[in-house]
Amino acid sequence: MPSPRYRREMPQRYRxxxxxxxxxxxxxxxxxxxCAACGSKGFDKTxxxxxxxxxxxxxxxxxxxxxATQVPYAIAIxxxxxxxxxxxxxxxxxxxxxxIGKKVKFVFRKLxxxxxxxxxxxxxxxxxx
Amino acid sequence: MREVAVIGCGMTKxxxxxxxxxxxxxxxxxLKAIDDAxxxxxxxxxxxxxxxxxxxxxxxxxxxxxxxxxxxxxxAMRVESACCSSGMALRLGLFEISSGHxxxxxxxxxxxxxxxxxxxxxxxxAADQEYEVYQGVTFPGLYALIARAHMHRYGTTRKQLAAxxxxxxxxxxxxxxxxxxxxxxxxxxxxxxxxxxxLTVLDSSPVSDGAACVVLTSVDFAKQLKAPLxxxxxxxxxxxxxxxxxxxxITALKAVKVSGExxxxxxxxxxxxxxxxxxxxxxxxxxxxxxxxxxxxxxxKGGPFTEQGNxxxxxxxxxxxxxxxxSKGHPVGATGIAQVVEVVEQLxxxxxxxxxxxxxxxxxxxxGGSGASSVTHIFKI
Lengths: 129, 381
Ligand SMILES: [Zn+2]
Fold this sequence. Notes:
Radius of gyration of chain A: 16 Å
Number of domains of chain B: 2
Number of strands of chain B: 11
Low-confidence stretches of chain B: none
Helix content of chain B: 25-40%
Bound molecules: zinc ion
Distance between the termini of chain A: 31 Å
Number of strands of chain A: 8
Largest sheet of chain B: 9 strands, mixed
Shape of chain A: globular
Strand order of the largest sheet of chain A: 4-5-6-8-7
Largest sheet of chain A: 5 strands, mixed, barrel
Number of helices of chain A: 2
Shape of chain B: globular
Order of helices and strands of chain A: HHEEEEEEEE
Number of helices of chain B: 14
Structural class of chain B: alpha/beta
CATH superfamily of the largest domain in chain B: Thiolase/Chalcone synthase
Distance between the termini of chain B: 19 Å
Helix content of chain A: under 10%
CATH class of chain A: Mainly Beta
Low-confidence stretches of chain A: none
Mean pLDDT of chain B: 97
Strand content of chain B: 15-25%
CATH architecture of chain A: Beta Barrel
Oligomer: heterodimer
CATH topology of the largest domain in chain B: Peroxisomal Thiolase, Chain A, domain 1
């Protein structure tokens, strides 16, 4: 990923920064400028809960070039305890350990290296709790 | 508002077309459609394509195709909406004629995915780059997430998913334009190499080259031409969140439901009036969700409905008589118009061995990404 794009997303990827609609209370990750639920434009800065629940999961067996050396790896849609959803890898577990409804905790990890000379890309992953 | 009809259609064979270029396959399909329509000119054209820039390094293909088709200086425009690029392009052709701006419009779609590009990467650009693809998600992965949730919630089985591929390969085996003209068994689908659990390579549409075109005109003008006339009764399009995870219910394809409802309303028909449908089975689970959203069966019942043969050629509502994206192939930008080509041939009674009996009303549904955009059209002969 080109570095300017990477840098802009760091607050979300490193610190799970999110935005809560001042009017209706809906939580957005990543933050956005207009509330998709009520149309309001006022938000409070907040953070995702550091734990959540697996909504669905899969094991990726055929990956894009950046992730080719990591296969097979688990990907899940997780709902944070304060109600925002995201897509994340689930690591440090066997594929057969995963189940819909299981609890996870977000951790800070390396995601991939950008080619041979590019930056190392970091962000959140999840582990089972 | 003028009524609009499809008066000509044409497509290339879908598959790995190593000897033909992007421009050649589009021109081949366009010439077939123009010849089929029996018109001596077109006033304007729309070209649906997802990402020729990534696949073959070529953008600005609207002008390129007008140039190579020998129709410059007519206006030409490219339409991009991921895998439903040409389905969306059809709407623009429809609007241009119904508004009276043009009399004869060519609408086509094209994609050349086998020229050496990283197809997994190129296709993934239709998902959320920063919050899905960054984590290592692929398109099979997104549909696998939908499949797992659908199985968990509704009890959809691995075998029911496989039944979609078996049915579509059965139909595709009778389609001379299909990429894979051969049957597969339930066991072959279920035991094939896993791509993203629980989906195997035989749940997935292939990487394909191909083009498809139709010629549209007003119904009044079509009558003067004495061309075989298939009316466009309804058109609906809708969007949903780009990221799958942002949806309240990841088993629901809301854009499909809304695009269907709008098209049904405009056409003045209901799901039970449809005689034949071509839908966006990019993965087996997609067809199951789509037939639910279009109202062919209840939400959650798409698996058993398929397993019981209701969507087979001789079933209650034949779905994907062409073989669908799975067997016919899925050159992403061409798929939406290729669906229209199939439905027009079915309504004309010219679909050969895969002909659906007594079909008079047909539907096409074309989808982008993991369902963030959908377009539905309804046709009548
Ligand atoms: Zn709000």
